[in-house]
Amino acid sequence: MNLKKSNNSKNNNELSVYLDPKFVPANLQKFCKDLKQNQLDEKSFLKKSNEIDIFLTNFDLDKLQMNFFLLLIGKRLYNFCDTGNYNLKIYGGDELQKSNIILGWELEKYKFQKFKTVTTKEITKSLTLIPKDIKNKKEAYFFIRDLINSPANILGPNEIYHAAKEHLNDDYVCKKITGKKLEKTFPLISVVGAGASKKNQPIFASFISKKKNKKKIFIIGKGVSFDTGGLNLKTGIGMSLMKKDMGGAANAIGLAKLISRKNLKVEVNLLLCLVENSVSDNAMRPSDIYKSRSGKFIEVSDTDAEGRLIMADALSYASEKAPDLIIDLATLTGASRVAMGLEVPSFFSNNIILSNLLNKASIETGDPLWQLPLWQNYNNQILSNHADYKNIGNGGFGGAITAALFLEKFIKKKIPWIHIDLMGWTRPNKYSKYEGGEAMGIIALSKLIDYMFK
């Protein structure tokens, strides 16, 4: 992959990345000998004058991990390089998503400084060529990060709605449902948000693409602007990051924007379930029973399992429209995070062909998603003695699976469905200095939609 522009200016630096040893010049091959397998350290970088060489010939990862690693390399390179313009050349790895290096570089430029009185200046270092699709992905990432990083006293349900409306206005027609109409038509969304202040009352928002087509997809985002846990109150540590509980909605908006930039033969419907899960005399109680939009009665076994309640009504609504695909994104369970860590969201699907396509999209893009099973033998864990279902499983085992099984109850049979359980947050590591809200799964999902509707 040669992204070098014909520019011989002295202000430009040469940045060469070697993925295959056969492309390493003879005079540089000695630097590859002592590299440890699958490890990046100071020996991987050679800097001289206005030339930087990076040796990645020692990496032998599967394709998914290698493509993800290239994103990390882009971030590391940005932090390694001094100010200036860089001509990037990548040698070897033609089967890989080499543009991930460029995306990683661009993502590392992000800063969230809205609430700092003293800000750090942007460092002037750039690559000479940024492809349009990388610019679109960067825009989606930055929007998602900005939204998740905004505190709940600034960003409530109504503010999320208006942020989505502004971001999508050119391509989507939007409307929202609140108050008594919400209580009647989306009762679970209404009851979860009932404990919030008047300013943060619950909203069901829909955005329909202006581009019409017989084929339809629904993208659903969990948008809990802050989650106290309700009357099953979280601890201080457990509550500290709960401004990110609208990460599913943020990612859903970003995905909808990405899709709108493509000439695809599909109508996109974005649904946002926007609430604040607060404590008040109007808040739902453990053991309360409510009738969902689908007509099924749900017992609230735990008010801190509120996300699946609001998603249930939205999934019911989407299923009524008999679409070709339903995707939901949610920061749904701690169980998924414990199993998969910060970097890898889990996904569930009721369709084997769809699962295989998403796995392929994840591998090809290096945007990690990992399938967990809809293990039907766990269904008895969400059966209630006094209602049709309860909103949390028995005990502490298989929590991500039982949450997905609960959501599946609101999908009409034969409608292809994907559920993404994501963290929506990242922490600093040896590749990146950034900590904060994060886009997860949207590049792979966008690729999946390419496969299905191009």
**How would you classify the quaternary structure?**
single chain
How would you sum up the major sheet?
Answer: 8 strands, mixed
- Uncertain segments are 1-9
Number of domains: 2
Provide a count of the helices: 13
Helix share, percent: 25-40%
Which characteristics define this entry?
single chain, 5-stranded mixed sheet, Aminopeptidase, Leucine Aminopeptidase, subunit E, domain 1, 2 domains, elongated, 8-stranded mixed sheet, 454 residues, 18 strands, alpha/beta
Description of the structure:
The protein is an alpha/beta fold. It has helices spanning 63-80, 100-107, 132-149, 157-168, 179-185, 187-192, 236-239, 247-260, 307-320, 334-340, 352-365, 399-408, 442-453; strands spanning 12-18, 45-48, 51-55, 84-91, 125-127, 172-177, 203-209, 216-227, 267-277, 289-291, 297-299, 325-330, 346-349, 370-371, 389-390, 417-421, 425-426, 436-437. A hairpin with a 2-residue loop joins strand 2 (45-48) and strand 3 (51-55). The chain starts with 11 loop residues before the first strand and ends with a helix. The strands form four sheets. An eight-stranded mixed beta sheet has the order 6-7-9-8-12-16-13-14, sandwiched between helices. Strands 2-3-1-4-5 form a five-stranded mixed beta sheet, with no helix packed on it. Strands 10-11-15 form a three-stranded mixed beta sheet. Mean pLDDT is 95; it is low at 1-9. It folds into two domains: 12-126, 3-Layer(aba) Sandwich (Leucine Aminopeptidase, subunit E, domain 1), CATH 3.40.220; 134-453, Zn peptidases (Aminopeptidase).
